[in-house]
Amino acid sequence: MNVGWGIRTAAILCWAAGLGFGLPCLPTAVRLLQGRGLPMFMGFHAYGGGPFERAGVPTMVTCLIVFLIFCIFDCAAGWLLWGGHRTGGVLALALLPIGAIFWWGFALPLPPLAAIVRTALILVYWKTLS
Fold it and tell me: Residue 2 and residue 65: Cα distance in Å, rounded?
């Protein structure tokens, strides 16, 4: 199947968010459990500043593990989109409300912007998916 640039870009955005925010989840959870606090990334506390952090370490660790699972599904949506499968588009769209909870809870400003772009691309190029 010949998948166009729009769907491929949406797939890349799924992977970027899934890998970029998913890979640090386990090391961050371990660090919190060790009592070392949140790591710094580009001058900001990773996953910090949102309501999840204020809920305490046990809640934060649980949220990080569940967010990792969400990120795996995000990467799966990207994989399916890359192959031109409509199920990838459905999965990416279905993950939006769940992602919004995590983006809010971890105070993540970039994933919502990427989600808007990838959602627009999926909707515009929906007919190219099979």
Answer: 36
Domain extent listing, the chain: 5-128
- By the 10 Å C-beta count (0-12 exposed, 13-18 middle, 19+ buried), 2 is classed as exposed
pLDDT tens, position by position, 74-129: 999 999 999 999 999 999 999 999 999 999 999 999 999 999 999 999 999 999 99
Mean pLDDT value across the chain: 96
Distance from the Cα of residue 66 to its chain's centroid: 11
Q: Going by DSSP bridges, is the β-strand pair 40-41/44-45 parallel, antiparallel, or unpaired?
A: antiparallel
**pTM (predicted TM-score):** 0.94
Gyration radius of the chain's alpha carbons: 16
Q: Which of 87, 67, 92 is nearest to 10 (CA)?
A: 92
Could you tell me which residues come within 8 angstroms of residue 89 by beta carbon, excluding any fewer than 6 positions away? 7, 10, 77, 80, 81, 122, 126, 129
pLDDT at position 52: 97
